[in-house]
Amino acid sequence: MPPTSRPAPSRAASAAHTVYAMTKELILTGELPAGSLISEGEIAERVRVSRTPVREAFLRLASEDLLALHPKRGAVVVPVPPGEAADVLELRLALERSAAERLARTGLSAGHEEELRELIARQRALAEAADVDAFAAADEAFHRGIVEASGNRLAGRFYATLGDRQRRMSVSALRVRPERLALLADEHETLLGHLGAGDAPAFAAALLDHLTATHGAPHPPVADKR
């Protein structure tokens, strides 16, 4: 019996996904800043689709806390909630430190090291071009790559859920400080060096400095009472 092929997505579903992806990118890059009011008609005209897929896309973005829907008015881009940035930094620190500790025991594979070096090389080119949006995406990929390199699949999946928030934070922080792009690439090189050397404590210290310099200090760590 020949294998059953999956049905192609409907045109309506494809249109809704296109609207969703485009609108989400505009939000994450700050082209639609927090507080912006957008209408279904405005987006429908921009993408050249009917309002139905726009409505579906808006519902999906609302479920991700990126839009707040207002009947008969449209949707408002939701600001980053107070305290969320610090919460994201806490989680990133915990996951990346844990990854570094595991890699100190298992070693960083040549394949993962090459992928991380390629991302740093891409970041240097983007820093030269002052492309903040693309740099933020490459920055997220680098840090996620560290967690994925550890081999902890659950940690990798959870870290990936922070990606949108991470990109939005980075774009917001770097848009007004584009001179930090080249410095971030240098700091990534340092982090990779600590991973390659299996020095988890040095990685943790460098990571804290790295994130604090860009985003500010996260919540203070709980004291070790042992």
Question: What does this entry look like structurally?
Answer:
It is a single chain. By secondary structure, this protein is mostly helical. The protein folds into two domains: 14-77, Arc Repressor Mutant, subunit A (Orthogonal Bundle); 84-215, GntR ligand-binding domain-like (Four Helix Bundle (Hemerythrin (Met), subunit A), Up-down Bundle). Helix content is 68%, strand content 4%. The chain is built from ten helices and three strands, in the order H-E-H-H-E-E-H-H-H-H-H-H-H. It has helices spanning 11-28, 40-47, 51-63, 84-106, 110-128, 132-149, 153-160, 163-175, 180-197, 200-215; strands at 37-38, 67-70, 74-77. The radius of gyration is 20 Å and the shape is elongated.
Characteristic key phrases:
single chain, 226 residues, mainly alpha, Arc Repressor Mutant, subunit A, Four Helix Bundle (Hemerythrin (Met), subunit A), 3-stranded antiparallel sheet, 68% helix, elongated
Topology:
Layout: H1 11-28, E1 37-38, H2 40-47, H3 51-63, E2 67-70, E3 74-77, H4 84-106, H5 110-128, H6 132-149, H7 153-160, H8 163-175, H9 180-197, H10 200-215
Antiparallel strand pairs: 1-3, 2-3
Helix pairs in contact: 1-3, 2-3, 4-6, 4-10, 5-6, 5-9, 6-7, 6-8, 9-10
Count every beta strand, where a strand is a DSSP E run of 2 or more residues. 3
The second-level CATH architecture of the largest domain is Up-down Bundle
Classify the helix fraction into a percent range.
55-70%
Order of helices and strands: HEHHEEHHHHHHH
Low-confidence stretches: 222-226
- Determine the number of helices (DSSP H or I, runs of at least 4 residues): 10
Oligomer: single chain
Structural class computed from helices and strand pairing: mainly alpha
Radius of gyration from the CA trace? 20 Å
* Main sheet specs: 3 strands, antiparallel
Shape: elongated
CATH class of the largest domain, please? Mainly Alpha
The number of distinct structural domains comes to 2
Distance between the termini: 63 Å
| Fourth CATH level, the homologous superfamily of the largest domain | GntR ligand-binding domain-like
Q: In percent, how much strand structure appears in the residues? A: under 5%
Under CATH, the topology of the largest domain can be stated as Four Helix Bundle (Hemerythrin (Met), subunit A)
